[in-house]
Structure to design on (676 residues):
């Protein structure tokens, strides 16, 4: 066991894009589990867009990370010492213990990870929070019907890629938007999307309209910004928009210039009878069992696939998160810690 | 029977506020019903905010009125000649026959009006389209729970007044927004609203916050604009916003100046897990029977009340509609035609 616990803390709050200077690596003693507790050693750390929000002081659905506190994040960890009869040394668990090598846990709120059922890292991706986000948001709010058109951006990421694949399993057309020809080829060839559009190419509105000749019935909102602008005119009557994320605006420091288009958005909601609904995965915690059954089953049957983007070393986490917010990752971004 | 049929047609499309010059009164022959048809004489004409939308060429959920065509509208009419065994002379029906004295109808799509059950004009108000709009939008999308706070603007109008009264019947607090002290006193004293706010007074945001100490759980959107701006920061997590109308913007000719606040609206939808959903009453046509049973019952039991603003003479309809869009009416606006 290493003598030190490395941890990455929030050094200061970014105004706009985060830089490495907003993070600080600290070293401390490995904590000692007390009676009933276990010691976790982080093996993999998940990096996700929501972390940008936690770096800001602005009120959101969760408390911000305090200055000087360990950055939040879910990990897959190995139990390396146990004073809790429910956990044995060597067990793997998913825990929200953050950007650090070690953590002590009571055992409550941990999710067991069985590497015999699926690779352990899937607990951070397709079988974890991102997968359940896609599953619950698409099926509960989006409710795609056979023959309908489902559009999702950030489509090669862990949420978007499963949104499109589930849409197809439900008989809908899946149209993905991603950055660059390599990601688009992956969506079409490996994941079976009906169409894929490179948002870095020319004329996103025209490309999207061509890919959606019958309009859009479900838009799973991950990104906002220019993609939403292209989607809105194509939404059909009674379209559903699960609002899951707005990553294109997470680094924004002010509102865009005018005119104020919010009245036009409200008018579209009215006249098209749209349903826009925000959610986070914890709102649907009661669906954890059906999610695990359905997506676990589809994964074993080879009906859904996933892709990981692995980064080596805890010290790389700040740069990797900064890149994630710019779309530099290709697949579920995971830091291999130990 | 009068020898002429007066009809008010759309003379030209307004850009901004309509004026009397956008309408034209014409006189023609009273039409003759053929086999199977009936002749209707208009007794009361309903005026409603949606009519402004039909005067514009912009695509909405219904076709615009053609230039030179009779203005659309629902009426309560009397059968004055009948070649249809299902209708007798003297029967009252509700029909979408528009701003004119007479019309021929096949009988299909007509709603019978029984003046022994309730005054015939209620078929255009609390027991008609406005009432069903309030009932279906509030209960199906808004879904107020006991103890929650429901806010509605245009609250002394036929939709808003019933929204607030049904909210109270469901155990929620009702907060109404209306123009002027007389309307506010009516909401509090006659309809039992828990609070009423004059949007013409000072500091609407501050007044609304004071009237909603526990935030807002349901906002029934009739008006948009400054009221929505005041509501948005007060919406609680998981609040529901049935979007029924945006009357404050119906005469707008361009978007307001910047910044573009639509990203802030999307961010609120995401972080507060809001549900915004547009609807029109015809989307809920399958609820007509439960609506008539429930609201009819409440009306007979004296548990809901209504107020009418009667205008005398078909020729007054253009001025009355122009005033409606400025909030000059007090209660359900109805033109007494004959």
């Amino acid at each position: 066991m290493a003598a030190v616990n490395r941890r990455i803390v929030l050094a200061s709050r970014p105004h706009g894009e985060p830089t490495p200077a907003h993070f600080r690596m600290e070293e401390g003693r490995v904590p000692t589990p007390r009676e009933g507790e276990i010691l976790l050693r982080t093996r993999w750390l998940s990096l996700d867009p929501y972390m940008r929000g936690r770096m800001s002081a602005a009120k959101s659905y969760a408390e911000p990370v305090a200055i000087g506190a360990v950055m939040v994040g879910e990990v897959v960890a190995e139990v390396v010492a146990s004073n809790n009869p429910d956990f044995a040394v060597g067990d793997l668990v998913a825990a929200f213990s953050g950007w650090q090598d070690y953590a002590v846990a009571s055992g409550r709120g941990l999710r067991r990870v069985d590497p015999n059922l699926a690779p352990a890292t899937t607990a951070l991706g397709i079988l974890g929070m991102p997968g359940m986000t896609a599953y619950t948001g698409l099926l509960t709010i989006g409710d795609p019907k056979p023959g309908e058109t489902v559009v999702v951006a950030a489509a090669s990421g862990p949420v978007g890629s499963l949104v499109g694949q589930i849409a197809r399993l439900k008989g809908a057309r899946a149209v993905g938007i991603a950055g660059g020809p390599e990601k688009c080829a992956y969506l079409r060839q490996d994941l079976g999307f009906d169409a894929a559009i490179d948002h870095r190419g020319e004329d996103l509105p025209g490309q999207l309209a061509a890919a959606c000749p019958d309009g859009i019935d479900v838009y799973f909102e991950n990104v906002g910004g220019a993609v939403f602008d292209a989607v809105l005119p194509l939404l059909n009557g009674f379209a559903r928009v699960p609002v899951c994320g707005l990553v294109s605006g997470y680094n924004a420091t002010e509102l865009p210039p005018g005119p104020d288009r919010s009245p036009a958005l409200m008018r579209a909601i009215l006249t098209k009878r749209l349903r826009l609904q925000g959610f986070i995965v914890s709102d649907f915690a009661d669906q954890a069992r059906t999610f695990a059954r359905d997506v676990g089953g589809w994964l074993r049957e080879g009906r859904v696939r996933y892709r990981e983007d692995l980064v080596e070393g805890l010290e790389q986490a700040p740069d990797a998160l900064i890149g994630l917010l710019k779309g530099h990752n290709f697949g579920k971004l995971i830091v291999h810690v130990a």
